[in-house]
Amino acid sequence: EEGETVSDGKSEGNDNSTLTTPPPRLQRSSSTLILQRMHSVSNLPNQRHVMLSYSWAKNKSLVIALGRKLRELGYDVWRDEEGSTLLPAMSGDIVEAMAEAIQYSHTMIICVSPEYKESPNCRAEAKYARTRQQRNGLQLLYVMMDENYRTHSSQQVVDGWLGFMIGADLWYPLWSLDQLEKTATSLAELIGDNAK
């Protein structure tokens, strides 16, 4: 039996955005694969980067601008299309690439949106990042990408697995370009000299 090809939900039609899954009787969720493959990691360098985790379907241009601003502030930033000084841009095995990017992270900035919550790959990234936070001290920071989708006082309240993950943590707004400077500065204060 042959496996089927599954899209990562980020870049339709790009050869690098697919992976072959085992036949249906052997299929596992991408979050299960990440956790299985990456619990055995060792010998990671001491240097770390900042990872941007986001859905391509929501304010991608603002995520790109945030990455650019953090680089201007001296941070080594990994975004799936750009990579960092530690890791290249995402290619090949998506599960392996996502997990490796998380493992090399000092900080992961989760760009919260309804689209992020509904994406299986974003959920897998976030779930693995949460595991790394609990076991290895990965810093998780949250940026809200939709003015009407926040943890309180909005038309739609972040709920489900993503609401549970954010809990009462602070978050920073980035649903318009005029918030970029202040949000990037606030994030930099929390990251400090790490990931430079």
Walk me through the topology.
Layout: E1 5-7, E2 18-20, H1 30-38, E3 49-53, H2 60-72, E4 77-78, H3 94-103, E5 105-112, H4 114-118, H5 120-136, E6 139-144, E7 149-150, E8 156-157, H6 160-166, E9 171-173, H7 180-191
Parallel strand pairs: 3-4, 3-5, 5-6, 6-9, 7-8
Antiparallel strand pairs: 1-2
The number of helical runs is: 7
SSE topology string: EEHEHEHEHHEEEHEH
What topology, given as strand order, has the largest sheet?
4-3-5-6-9
* Share in β-strands: 15-25%
Largest sheet: 5 strands, parallel
Low-confidence stretches: 1-28, 33-42
- Proportion of helical residues: 25-40%
Specify the structural class.
alpha/beta
Protein architecture, described:
By secondary structure, the protein is α/β, with parallel strands linked by helices. Helices cover 37% and strands 17% of the residues. It contains seven helices and nine strands, in the order ββαβαβαβααβββαβα. The strands form three sheets. A five-stranded parallel beta sheet has the order 4-3-5-6-9, with helices on both faces. A two-stranded antiparallel ribbon has the order 1-2. Helix 1 (30-38) packs across helix 3 (94-103), helix 1 packs parallel to helix 5 (120-136) and helix 3 (94-103) packs parallel to helix 5. The protein is globular.
